Request: fold
Amino acid sequence: MKSYIKLNNSCLDFPIYEGSDLSFRNKISSLGKKDGFAKSNIITSGRRIVRGLDNINLEINTGDKIAIIGPNGAGKTTLLKLLTGIYVPTSGTVEINGKVSSMIDLGFGFLDDATGYENILLSRIIQGESIKNKQHIIEFAEEFSGLGEYLSLPIRTYSSGMKSRLALSSAIHNVPDILLIDEFFSTGDIEFSKKSRDKITEIMDNSSIMLFASHDLNLVKELCTKAMYMKNGQISYYGDIDKACSVYENDYL
Reply:
């Protein structure tokens, strides 16, 4: 069966719980505002709610390579986290067919006192992947990361660049049906950054569906076939990539 993603009237709300010690700060921050809250906030049952995604309707099918563009806080990463299962919609539905792999929070779940080898396997388990072919996973990470003997050491001894190498080497082991990427990331030296980009581009090309959130409009035009422009948690435009970038640029750039 072909891969697809379907969202129907999907909303995602984040409740904000505030202690009494914040009451003075809240009063100060509300001065000069008519209602004391941002437009994206909702008051329900005496509780403050921030709407991260608002009434998302979307259908994505095999062959779609989609850029997600928009300003910071538009909902790009939130949408990707909804699709990867990190978040559950407050209302509406999300239907996904196909194996999903995400490059959003690389290194999520890593344990500082565990070795590089142990964290590689741990990250695969957190992603819902099988580690039956454990030796192949390890060998790929050894070759791609170039971390050598450091893989036997706790990652608390790693630099930030080394942790990025480890996380990326684990994340790109398999080609998924559906690939979700939130920006490209720094992985240290120029040689490894090029190696990483080449590998990720290869995976993008071979995935059935790809969603790529980025601020780099030239890059998304190079890698994607369609685009959605997000604004205030909503899809403001979805379709032709050149038009989506033009609408975004006219609004913000």
Summary: The chain has two domains: 4-98+214-252, 103-207. Residues 182 and 213 are 5 Å apart (CA to CA). The first strand starts at residue 4 and ends at 16.
